[in-house]
Amino acid sequence: MARIFLARGSVWLHFGNHYLYPGLINAHDHLEMNLYPRLGRPPYTNFTQWATDIRQPDESPVKEIEAIPIGDRLLWGGIKNLISGATVVVHHNPWQRQLGRHEFPVLVPKKIAWTHSLTYHNKVRKPWLSGSNIPFVMHAAEGTDDAAAREFFKHQPKFDFAVLVGN
């Protein structure tokens, strides 16, 4: 055990035999969609195949879940993230006032720019490009096939900043 020296006036909290862990950051979530079960019939080689397969808004269970008020679905997404250890969540859908309320279970930054993906919205506009300090979130090249790779390399010259690709 390390000895910790505190500055004069510091507060020392004793938790006995408990541990304190840092909160995680979920850098990409669709909070209102956390009620969905696994959908579709994998395997898929890219997200476009998956999205086409699961986009059934008039069928069960999507129809029933979408009938739940969005505020309740957002709250469930916040609680699910908190239980998983995330205390900050970057929400990848339009801002809802509830996300900024003090009682919402996780912090959701409001100042972000986002687009769903280059496949569905390939006109990336300012301020999402260079010169902005606002974080930009999108799906990019999600898959293992040539179509996913082509998407990334086709649009990569539009960005003059580092792009992190991963699952």
Explain what the structure shows.
- The chain is an alpha/beta fold.
- It has 2 domains: 17-109, no CATH class; 111-167, no CATH class.
- Helices cover 22% and strands 13% of the residues.
- A two-stranded parallel ribbon has the order 1-2.
- The radius of gyration is 20 Å and the shape is globular.
- The chain starts with 23 loop residues before the first strand and ends in a 12-residue tail after the last helix.
List the helices and strands and how they pair.
Blueprint: E1 24-29, H1 47-54, H2 62-66, H3 70-83, E2 86-91, E3 113-117, E4 136-139, H4 146-155
Parallel strand pairs: 1-2, 3-4
Defining key terms:
alpha/beta; 167 residues; two-stranded parallel sheet; 4 strands; globular
Uncertain regions spanning at least 5 consecutive residues: none
Write the H/E string, N to C.
EHHHEEEH
Biggest beta sheet summary: 2 strands, parallel
Overall geometric form: globular
Domain module count: 2
Share of residues in strands:
5-15%
Helix content: 10-25%
Let me know the average pLDDT. 84
Helical segment tally?
Answer: 4
N/C terminus separation: 36 Å
Strand line-up across the major sheet: 1-2
Structural class assignment: alpha/beta
User: What is the CA-atom radius of gyration, in angstroms?
Assistant: 20 Å
Query: Total number of β-strand segments?
Result: 4
Give the structure's gist in a few sentences.
This protein is of the alpha/beta class.
